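Q: What does the assembly look like in three dimensions?
Context provided by user:
Components: two
Sequences:
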Amino acid sequence: MPIFSYLAIPRKGAKETLCADLASLAHCRILPADNHEVIVLITDTPDETTEEALQESLKNLQSLQSLNLAFGADEN
Amino acid sequence: MKIKGKKEVTMKLDRRRFIQCAAASSAIATAGALFPGISFANWPKLTGNSGLVSWQKAPCRFCGTGCGVLVGVADGRAVAVKGDPNCSVNKGLCCMKGYHSVQALYGSDRLTKAKVRRNGKMVEVPIQEALDIVAEKLKETRDKHGKDSVAIYGSGQWTIPDGYVASKLFKGCLGTNNVEANARLCMSSAVTGFMTSFGIDEPMGCYEDIDHANVFITWGNNMAEMHPVLFSRMLANLKRRTNVQIIDFATRLTRTSQAADKSILFKPQTDLAVANAICHEIIANGWVNWNFVNEHVSFHKGKTNIGYGTEDHFAFTDQAETIDFEEYKTFLADYTPEKVERISGVSAQDIKYMAALYGDPSVKVTSYWCMGMNQHTRGTWINNLVYNIHLLVGKISTPGNSPFSLTGQPSACGTVREVGTLTHALPHGTVMNEHDRQMAAEIWDVPVENIDPKPTYHTVEMFRALDRGDIKFIWIQVTNPMVTMPNLKRYRDGALKDDRFLVVSDVYPTPTTDVADVILPAAMWIEQEGMFGNSERRTQHFAQILDPPGEAMSDTWQIIEVAKRLGFEKQFPWSQEDYIEKIWEEYRRFHAGPKHEMAPYSVLNERSGVQWPFVDGKETRWRFNPKYDPACTNGKDFDFYGHKDNRAWIWARPYEPAAESPDSEYPFWLNTGRVIEHWHTGTMTRRIPVLHNAVPSSYVELHPEDAAELGVVNGEKVKIISRRGEIIIPAQINGRGVPPRGMVFVPFFDESYLINELTLDAFCPISKQPDYKKCAVRLEKA
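A: Here is the predicted structure of the complete assembly.
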């Protein structure tokens, strides 16, 4: 049951798209910066399988340039 | 749960929600470090959506900047922090320590019960029993060995009420001036600098200078790491305005050097010579502001060859002698840029460049300094010399023109300088002054004879007295001297001697609690009500937001409990319901009047800090300037009312070498200091996983060529040896800080590497502040 937070950096000009993409994914909460092209992403998945599936979905996002891990905790 | 000053709210927060908040906080903190000025306005909405987190203001617990924070509380726990947008200090920004500060409350080994040493072992006892033992032992020691055999040693992290009741009990009731605080180790040279140059303590300017200055010169001051929020404000100005530059004048390259427009390195201790050379150039080029100097400045000299204080019972009293401008100019003849280049390693061209910046009447200059100038065996002198520069050109007490001494602790100014928790001081004035003693006796309701007119021991001498046995009982609160004292081994051995009795109040186990006979668990930060005072004369109140764990109790209340047991109920009549308010209103009587009037409790309670003098409902941003300062009465454009001649004093102070310099046996300088992730000895920040994992242990910074000669690469162990001790520590080469050849730098936050076993307990003879930046060591590959 891991919880992670990341700094998500969008591709140039794609911040709004990335916000929409991330917000549409299950187990994700987002917090866009007001004055930088940066989005805080918090993920909270119930199990390893779901986590792996989410990671795969994140990898496939065209609007996402990079994802930098800031925090991680696993209750198991 | 009901907490004073706080609305009762229904609070439900499960563990996962708590971790989510921590995850968001960490990411925001990381973003703040990577993108200065980044803002997340929706953060409160995100948390607010749950409807479960309540927010209350407080000043940050860490450095002397005094950032306002909003602490988010849910279910009785602090779960989040954000910068307080209503606080003019930080305008909503925080550094990584601030953002993670609440996690320091919840370390797994938090002290929650009192402990007493019995048959060599620490055993838990009810706190009331421990307080009985403290009172009995204090009384017994005092009866047997005299009033000056007992002492209290506090901190610039003491709240103002903590320091006030400590001074009242020890100086007013017990009659001993054995009251000191660790701020002696971090800013007493700033105090004596202010007192000798201006006759009154604390900066004339404020942080708003940052928004007006064109040039910032940092004197031995790594602001990027030590005062990151102020540095961010400087960088924001650098970006926003076209005519701003930062000059870093330092002994090693740091993150401040990297961000500065120009970095100038000088050899340790030679800042004295460079400051004089700048003044020489200002005069030689006709840049003196004669209108200002003739009207507002007088010239003086003091004693020279004043020693270093390395011997017990060292005593020194300076003697001021008035001189004229011509004598001062003659004194400066020894400090031509070319001569000083040979002493300092700073090119004559760079000296002239700095002088030209100070000398240009169209440029507003703010100078910042902190430990580099204060932890200096000529700390008072170098403070004087930087004021000299500003005074010669009249760049002072106006927006953007500020010589500004920063403090390192949240209440070094509020508690130590303003309350006067140093051996010679009282909440108003000094113990040597009869009028000040009478004022204290009246407010404290004690016989004036109780207050001894003679100071006893400054901090280094206090711990020497403990070692010698002149002091047998010492109560240490909110500080960790068994990590921070220079020449540490002597003082730890002294503390461990058989007939010494140490009481230590703290929140976590430390090397100081290790040598204690009684440990008292303390409430931390927002687990109590209190006030801090920051670097810019700003008093900041915080309510009790959380309950302290277990039997932990505020340091203020611990002292009151002991005072009552010693029979001083009359002087300490307060109840736990409102004692902070009552103490504040009693304390502010000491500062009545336009020079230092403090805001009433009701105003402090409402605002995110109030700057003194607070007169007729108005804060004072720039002192000595009648446009801003109500204490100015001379009808002129400035009024330096601290000295009797109503002038600021320029001092002829020479360059004198350090107490111990590298030689053939010990060829390297040892410099010590801090890193951005950790607060002082790491007691709190090393229990915050995100900060601890960022910098999990200390290291020695080496110049790459010195490392190559020694045959070590990054991470390999180096043995550092001084005349007093040695440690083995991993090397860091080309890390965030790079010392010049012949110098090593070691952060002191890690108790696993007690670097102060190597440092020298030499101090400025005027301020009695030790020099942690300069001693001689040799290196070996371990």
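Follow-up: The CA atoms of residues 8 and 66 of chain A lie 6 Å apart.
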